[in-house]
Specification:
The protein contains 9 helices and 9 strands. It has 2 domains: 4-184, Dihydrofolate Reductase, subunit A, CATH 3.40.430; 196-270, 5' to 3' exonuclease, C-terminal subdomain (DNA polymerase, domain 1, Orthogonal Bundle), CATH 1.10.150.20. It is elongated, with a radius of gyration of 21 Å. The chain has helices spanning 30-33, 37-45, 53-56, 102-113, 124-132, 196-203, 217-225, 239-244, 250-262; strands at 4-11, 46-52, 75-78, 95-98, 117-121, 138-144, 164-172, 178-187, 193-194. By secondary structure, the protein is α/β, with parallel strands linked by helices. The structure holds NADP nicotinamide-adenine-dinucleotide phosphate (NAP). NADP nicotinamide-adenine-dinucleotide phosphate (NAP) binds next to strand 1, strand 2, helix 3 and helix 5.
Length: 273
């Protein structure tokens, strides 16, 4: 099953639209943005979209989603009252208006997405509900270097327990945009904080303690986040590459090097080839 990703763009002072409700200043680079790797990756990996009624209403003509919207996938719109006339759909893009709340919307979207991700589109209310209900696995936030001075504040209402985060990635994009990714750490009953990645480890075929003996949980999560499930996969990388991976520290690096050496293996740059 894929991840649930909250994706949005906000101003440097934390707003997702301005006082007039416009997102223009946050998407002044829209044409360039469509060609960036994070956006292409998001479109590739998204199997279903969840949005609130207000975000849905941003399109002047709701029929324009079909064939034009970036995400041509099933879309689930949270609302108290579905529109009288359903918008136009295609084989790929369908609309489901969900009146049963955020858990129902995310649950239905996960089923529709299958192995792909569910992307929750930017708007404040829907994102906040998702965070508060502990339904999101990752935050993908783009910061635009503008001050809006007012508008909807994305993280206005995430009490009582704001989530703890772990950085996955920071990227500079054209036009001054900065792309940030975080795992949302999940608190489980009587347990320490876990990411979805480390939780999946227990559930399925993810990395195990025996694959990465003695390595700390943050370092293990960094490897998992990069798709490295087995110690042997490390031999494809140089020590410098592993170091770069999410800021892997010298202790973790040393432990990985030792674990490889114990098995007669080494990082790529230590083989002398
Ligand atoms: N910066 C970005 O990346 C970005 C992206 C998208 C949007 N935006 C901005 O965000 C604005 C929208 O944000 P928003 O916080 O106002 O709203 P939103 O989350 O898009 O929509 C809120 C509306 O969705 C419905 N809804 C939400 N939760 C519900 C629930 N649990 N059960 C039933 N219905 C529910 C309600 O509509 P009804 O009661 O009317 O049915 C509610 O008024 C847009 O206008 C746009 O300016 C920014």
């Amino acid at each position: 099953m894929g991840k649930v990703i909250l994706g949005m763009t906000m101003s440097l002072d934390g707003f997702v639209n301005d006082q007039d409700g416009s997102v223009g200043a946050l998407y002044s680079d829209l044409d360039t943005l469509r060609d960036t790797e994070p956006m292409r990756e998001s479109i590739r990996n998204t199997g279903a979209v969840v949005m609130g009624r207000n975000a849905f209403a941003m399109a002047e003509d709701p029929d324009s989603y079909a064939g034009n919207y970036e995400y041509q996938v099933p879309v689930f719109v949270l609302t108290h009252q579905p529109p009288k006339r359903p918008p136009k759909e295609t084989d790929a893009l369908t609309f489901t208006f969900v009146t049963g709340g955020i858990e129902s919307a995310i649950g239905q979207a996960k089923v529709a997405a299958g192995d792909k991700d569910v992307t929750v589109i930017g708007a404040a209310s829907t994102s906040q509900q998702c965070l508060k209900a502990g339904l999101a696995d990752e935050l993908h936030i783009d910061i635009m270097p503008v001050f809006l001075g007012g508008g909807l504040r994305l993280f206005e209402d995430i009490d009582p327990v704001p989530p703890r985060l772990e950085r996955i990635k920071v990227m500079e994009l054209p036009g001054g945009r900065i792309h940030l990714r975080f795992h949302i750490l999940k608190q489980e009953k009587g347990d320490s904080v876990k990411t979805t990645a480390s939780k999946n480890k227990a559930d399925s075929s993810g990395p195990s303690e025996s694959d990465f003996p003695k390595i700390s949980q943050p370092a293990l999560r960094a490897l998992t986040g990069a798709g490295i499930q087995r110690l042997e996969q490390l031999t494809k990388f140089s020590e410098a590459e592993i170091k770069q991976l999410h800021g892997m520290g010298p202790k973790a690096l040393g432990q990985l090097g030792q674990a490889l050496a114990d098995r007669g293996l080494s990082f790529a740059n230590k083989r002398g080839d």
